[in-house]
Amino acid sequence: MQVIKRLIIGFAGTALLASCGAGGDDQGTEYAPNMYHSVAYEPYTQITDKEAGRWVTSIEYVRDSSETNFSDHAEYHNSNYINPFHMNMRLPAPNTVSRNKSGYLPYRLKKDSLQFAAATLVSPLDTAAANAKAILADGKVLYETYCDHCHGAKGEGDGKVADKYAGVANLKGDAIKGVSEGHIFHVITMGKGLMQPHGSQVSPEDRWKIARYVKSLQAAK
Ligand code: HEC
Predict the structure, then answer these.
(1) pLDDT tens digits for the chain (221 residues)?
(2) Burial 103-118 (b: 16+ CB within 10 A, else e)
(3) pTM of this prediction?
(4) HSE of 196 in the Cβ direction (CA atoms, 13 Å)?
(5) Domain spanning 111-219: which superfamily?
């Protein structure tokens, strides 16, 4: 009797442990599977009628080759009755334009709109004296990273690259000295003539900081 009991316990134990083995699409036996599998929201699905068409699949469903078994519910929430059209995704609020992470609207001015940009764009950076120093300090670092090698430390068009790359503008020259921050912002963003655009490398906020710093260079003797 003892031997049989041990054998039964042994077999039962082995079977129990073997069922834990997972691999490939087989997740093994799970206790409280909801705790392992978070319920994902599929953004574009809007299925409300479970009987109609194919129910969005779960791994379990795919395995059922008969394709007639709809009883297994997928691991997804396939519709959300709170949202328009029962979509899981929320539509953006009407008449709104999404901003980037730093809160800026998309830049829609064309390269040849320099005059318009120069006249209308206003720097969103704080003009309070308390922040002026920090903005200029950031602007300096950014200028040294992105502009110095062409335009030179003082903006006089005498950076190292200017030796090889003819035509680098002297930012303190009469024609450029008086330009607005918006003008500089647009030139950094879109480039001008021989200068290539830097819009993809430098964030809008950083471009405004550089523009502020360039103004300070232009004001310096
Ligand atoms: C690869 C060299 C190069 C780099 C880097 C460069 N520039 Fe220029 N920049 C030029 C050249 C060349 C011109 C003259 C463009 C022309 O008129 O053809 C110019 C012109 C300008 C002008 C004058 C635009 C006008 O209205 O005539 C400004 C302002 C300016 N750059 C600012 C910057 C700032 C700010 C940076 C850094 C973000 C920068 N540039 C980076 C080469 C460069």
Answers:
(1) 788 888 888 888 787 777 777 776 676 777 776 666 666 667 776 666 655 544 444 444 444 455 554 444 445 556 777 888 778 788 888 899 888 887 888 899 999 999 999 999 999 998 787 789 999 999 999 999 999 999 999 999 999 999 998 999 999 999 999 999 999 999 999 999 999 999 999 999 999 999 999 999 999 98
(2) eeeebebeeeebeebb
(3) 0.69
(4) 8
(5) Cytochrome c-like domain (1.10.760.10)
CA–CA separation, 211 and 221 (whole Å): 18
**Residue with tokens 């003539």, as numbered in its chain:** 193
Look up residue 190 and give its two tokens.
């879109």
**H/E stretch holding 3:** helix 2-18
Answer whether 76 contacts ligand 1 (Cβ < 6 A): no
Beta strands in the chain (DSSP E): 40-41, 76-77
Which DSSP letter does residue 23 get?
B
Output phi, psi for 59, to 5 deg: -60, -40
Tell me, using a 6 A CB cutoff, whether residue 192 lines ligand 1: yes
Ligand 1 close to Cβ of residue 150 (< 6 A): yes
Is the distance from CB of 60 to CB of 37 less than 8 angstroms?
A: no
Question: Counting beta carbons within 10 angstroms of the beta carbon of residue 217, is it exposed (0 to 12), middle (13 to 18) or buried (19 or more)?
Answer: buried
Domain ranges for the chain, please list them. 35-95, 111-219
Q: How far, in Å, is the centroid of ligand 1 from the Cα of 169?
A: 6
Residue 206 to residue 211: CA distance in whole angstroms: 9
